[in-house]
Structure formats: C-alpha cells, structure tokens
Design brief:
disordered N terminus; 7-stranded antiparallel beta sheet; alpha+beta; 13 strands; 6-stranded antiparallel beta sheet
Length: 229
C-alpha cells in the first residue's frame, strides 16, 4: 500500500511538471509574440523620448523615412495617453515601420491604439500597410473612439484585430502620425519555438524524481528490538 502510494505521488509530480511545460509553452506553441515596448533600454515613467530605432523579441522598429523618428513614452506623462506601461507614439512628421531582424515572414494579429494626447483628443484613423514577399500590399485602418483622459480612470487604449489577410508579411508600415500604439501581437506562421530552458529543466527534474528508487521503511512499533538506520 505504501509503495503504491509513493508511486502515485511520483506520477502526480511528473504529471504536474508536464502540465507546467504545456502552460509555459502554450503561447509560443501558437507562434505568438506580444510586443509591449518595455525595453531594454528601460523608458522611465514620466518621460518621453524621440528615438530612431527600437528592438524587441527579434523585431526591429524604425521610422518609414530614416530621417524621421517616433516617440517612446514611459507612462505617467501628464496629458499623454495612459495604460500603465511603456508605448510608442507619433507626433507631426513621425512614422513607424517594423519587421523581423532575420527577415522572417510573420502574421499581424492585433494592436492597442489610442489618441495622441488629451489636447489632440479627436478620433484618429491609423493606417497600416503590410508588405508581402512579392511586393504586393494589404491595407487596413482603425479609428479610435476619441476617449482619452491621460492618468484618469477612463481606458485610453482600444484593442483592434487585423483581418485574415495579414499573413506572410515581410514588413509593416504605419505612415501617419498623431496616435499612440502598444501591445503589438504578431505570429510566426513557419514554425513552433522550442520550450523554454526552465520548462525543460522542470520536466527533467520531475522525471528523475519519478524514477528515484524507494527505500524500505522500518516496521512500526518496538517489538522487533532492532535499530533501523
């Protein structure tokens, strides 16, 4: 009975580790990446800088024109859009384009958008242009709701989803200005990333525990008169 109980315990531990691996790799198994623009370099709260390039999760972000720039906002900036995190924005003359540094094809899934500021709070239509390997393009625009109160209680950002045609892209351009952008979600259509090192370690450790030989326990009671070591 005891050995059976120990065996069931080992099986439970192994099953738990397997579940950990599944949960840890579920997002990457779908090939999804969520870009939150949190750095590095870290953009301090209360600050906003103009930058000419940014890199995260194997993707590059640059202005459409190399002589332009785009803004990076660390949150908690008076008068600016707010969602509690770092995000990108474009003022007059700014623009944005992005793709993978290794030129991988990708799908565009979703994005969070807001107006530029509480001063320029009118609804804005943000145009996205997707480029395919054969040189053809796809266009889609999203119009914000005009609701923005900065650090107030209202939700400044809205989530928008791209249509089914945004697949197998080489790069994307957002040529307009006067908007804020965060939580860009893209998908790798060509493969499934490997599980993380931590998840594999957990699975290996649980497997070793499951095969750990059990040791006999001394009989209960004092009738035998022997000392078990």
């Amino acid at each position: 009975m005891k050995q059976s109980s120990i065996s069931r315990q080992h099986q439970s531990l192994l099953a738990g580790a397997c579940l950990t691996v599944i949960l840890a790799t579920d997002l990457t198994a779908q090939g999804l990446l969520s870009i939150g623009f949190e750095g590095p370099p870290v953009q301090p709260a209360g600050t906003e800088y103009g930058v000419t390039e940014y890199f995260e999760a194997g993707m590059w972000f640059k202005p459409v024109n190399p002589y332009e720039q785009f803004g990076r906002n660390g949150g908690s900036v008076v008068g600016a859009a707010e969602n509690g995190t770092t995000y990108l924005k474009t003022a007059l003359g700014d623009s944005l384009s992005f793709g993978f540094t290794d030129e991988s094809l990708f799908d565009l899934v979703a994005v969070d958008l807001a107006e530029y500021s509480t001063v320029l709070s009118d609804p804005v239509t943000v145009q996205f242009i997707g480029y395919f390997a054969d040189g053809s393009t796809i266009l889609q625009g999203f119009t914000t709701d005009g609701v923005i109160d900065g650090t107030g209680p209202l939700a400044d950002f809205q989530t928008f989803y791209f249509s089914a045609g945004w697949v197998g892209l080489t790069r994307v351009e957002v040529p307009g200005f006067g908007w804020s952008l965060d939580n860009l979600v893209v998908r790798h259509p060509s493969g499934i990333p490997e599980p993380s090192a931590l998840a594999l370690w957990l699975l290996g450790a649980a497997a070793l525990w499951g095969y750990r030989p059990s040791h006999p326990r001394p009989p209960q009671g004092s009738g035998s008169g022997k000392n078990w070591r």
